[in-house]
Amino acid sequence: MTAEAAQETGTGPLPDTPPAAVEVEGDTDKVTDGATGEVTDGDTDKATDGDTDPGVRGDPDRPLRIALLTYKGNPFCGGQGVYVRHLSRELARLGHTVEVIGAQPYPVLDEQEGVTLTELPSLDLYRQPDPFRTPRREEYRDWIDALEVATMWTGGFPEPLTFSLRARRHLAARRGQFDVVHDNQTLGYGLLGLDRVGFPLVTTIHHPITVDRRLELDAAPDWKRRASLRRWYGFTRMQKRVARRLPSVLTVSGSSRREIVDHLGVRPSRVHVVHIGADTRLFSPDPAVPEVPGRIVTTSSADVPLKGLVHLVEALAKVRTENPDAHLVVVGKRPGTGPVAEAMARYGVEGAVDFVKGISDAELVDLVRGAQIACVPSLYEGFSLPAAEAMATGTPLVATTGGAIPEVAGPDGETCLAVPPGDPGALAAALTRLLGDAELRRKLGAAGRERVLARFTWERAAIGTVERYREAIAAGAGPLRARPAARGAARGTTRRPV
Fold first, then answer.
1. 306 neighbors 233 (Cβ within 8 angstroms)
2. Among 95, 355, 464, 467, which lies 20 to 30 A Cα-Cα from 219?
3. For the chain, what are the domain ranges?
4. Which helix (H) or strand (E) holds 355?
């Protein structure tokens, strides 16, 4: 079966029955306690529990055993990784046990009792410094690996599909060991039917990737680029089909809920809003950190139109005509080519824009604390963690009204200065106004933090998520019995400390 056909239909061999000719590695699981670091053998051929306690569906206070799936989990690469990191920690603090199951780039999790990481490796075809690499023959383990490479070779993005197939195989070996499975926007065919075979399923959709697709196609310079983008975003057809069949969908904002219903066709009754937020213990004001005159800080995880960084670069050039000290610090990778690099050269601001990446949490927080302004120039966001985190530090915010940003940032003039998305002139005017008004900066910064404390914390997110877990469990068909895992079904996985 071709990669395209598998993506379109979701058919083909079951993921736990690879072709006989494919040699796969044996069981290599090691279980490491996240709090103590003690390593023990993790024999997946033995169930960890006998009968699942029937009270799991009846006792509203019983701690849950949660499998949290994420095909991309590195918090330094985007919001999905931040979500997994903070949600897993807060779920554990509520008394639940969380096993994060992820592929490369692997999640970076906080050291917290009750949180463990299981690595479910892909071929990591997009790793640096050799993205779009061709694997060596000995790297292939099964037909899913072959599908992954074939999809990449034909210009597609295979990871949501192939991770879902590997995750299904892994879970099939561990039936009865989890009370609920929580998927973090994989939306692959392998997830379908999990709820009917003993795994109550909840899925988070941060926002439909169809929005990203539309914005990139609109910005494409020629037909060749548009054709390439359509092929790359081919996985969104699968995600739309899967989303429509999911029993319970969580999303992070009312704006995203509307987009999921409108773009993906999910029934409104199945989509529930659970706001996420900021780590307010970490992102907090510190008067000892000096304010750096003219510093504007923003976050851009990728050089894509959705992030609006091109418009902020143009706005910066306008701001500097009145405020020559104004400079931009971008948390993200400096692009060597592309729209942002071209804009910096065109407006002559290369020396006024710095990019930082790979910094620690403490360094990031101090960077934001020292800024006179935090800016979110995005054309669209499903939530905007950078907005919530900046507000939590007490740094005044200038943000667009794209997507869910107003839901987070609040009313214009009260908790932020709001401007239309894609309008460099309006962005420049707001930045100039705020740079010149210390009292307004103080007012917006204080009000912004109060808004986040009242509405957008990870503890609140975890509590709301558990409520949806229990609803999904209650909708199940009675208690489950653990069954012995099939030999080799969890092949290639490794559980590591967090």
1. no
2. 355
3. 24-277+461-475+491-496, 295-455
4. strand 353-356
Beta 115-119 vs 249-251: how paired, if at all?
Answer: unpaired
With left for phi above 0 and alpha for psi between -120 and 50, is residue 281 left, alpha or beta? alpha
The distance in angstroms from the start CA to the end CA of the chain is: 38
Q: Which two tokens stand for residue 212?
A: 């990203």
User: What's the whole-number average pLDDT of the chain?
Assistant: 85
Cα 214–chain centre separation: 19
The two tokens of residue 188 are 């692959």
Q: Closest by alpha carbon to 380, among 223, 197, 218, 178? A: 218
Q: Which CATH class is domain 295-455?
A: alpha beta
Q: Taking the CA atoms of 416, 421, 427 and 429 in sequence, report the sign of the dihedral they define.
A: negative
pLDDT digit string (tens) for 200-213?
A: 999 999 998 888 88
Task: Return the C-alpha torsion angle 115, 120, 126, 128, nearest 10.
Answer: 60
Per the document, the length of the chain is: 498
User: Which residue in 91, 34, 100 sits closest to 69, CA to CA?
Assistant: 100
Calculate Rg over the CA atoms of the chain: 23
Q: For the domain made up of 24-277+461-475+491-496, give the CATH fold.
A: Rossmann fold (3.40.50)
41 class by beta-carbon count within 10 Å (0-12 exposed, 13-18 middle, 19+ buried): exposed
Q: What is the pTM of this model?
A: 0.81
CA 146, 152, 156 angle in degrees (round to 5)?
Answer: 125
The predicted-structure confidence for 368-427, as pLDDT tens digits, reads as follows 999 999 999 999 999 999 999 999 999 999 999 999 999 999 999 999 999 999 999 999
Rounded to whole angstroms, the Cα distance separating 77 from 100 reads: 17
Confirm if 410 and 390 have CB atoms less than 8 A apart: no
